[in-house]
Each structure stands twice: as structure tokens, then as C-alpha cells.
Design brief:
2 helices, alpha+beta, about 25% strand
């Protein structure tokens, strides 16, 4: 993620940083209700990250779940 590509919710931003540390790709789209995607390049699976999630903690937990599932691929 580049400068200015930070998520506005602290919980979600921390989860995205953990995913990046494992080797997953974080891309910012900024279209509609999507903030961006979390992509596992080896298996071509992506997880949508909401721009304004109803529950930021639950969104962060979903990112962490995706990260755990794909940590061994990245």
C-alpha cells in the first residue's frame, strides 16, 4: 500500500498490515462501497474490503481469517 492508501478504520488498517506482512497483496480500488481487495496471488483468490463497514471489528476479523487461510500460499 502506498502513502494515502490507509483504511479509515484502525482495526481494518491493522488487519491489512498483518496481511501484507504475510505476503498477501493489498490493492486499493476506491469504487463504490469497496475500499479495495486483498489478493492471494498464487491461488488467485480475492477478498473484498469494505470502505465503510457496519462493524469494523468484524471486517478486521474477516481479513484475519482470509490471511490465516492463505498464509501458506503467499
Amino acid at each position: 500500500m502506498g502513502i494515502g492508501d490507509r483504511h479509515q478504520k484502525k482495526d481494518v488498517e491493522a488487519a491489512l498490515k498483518r496481511a501484507e506482512a504475510v505476503g498477501l497483496k493489498v490493492t486499493r480500488t476506491g469504487k463504490g462501497h469497496r475500499w479495495g481487495y486483498l489478493i492471494c496471488c498464487p491461488c488467485s483468490v480475492r477478498h473484498t474490503v469494505a470502505c465503510t463497514p457496519q462493524n469494523p471489528t468484524e471486517e478486521a476479523n474477516g481479513i484475519d481469517r482470509f490471511t490465516r487461510r492463505h498464509a501458506n500460499c503467499a
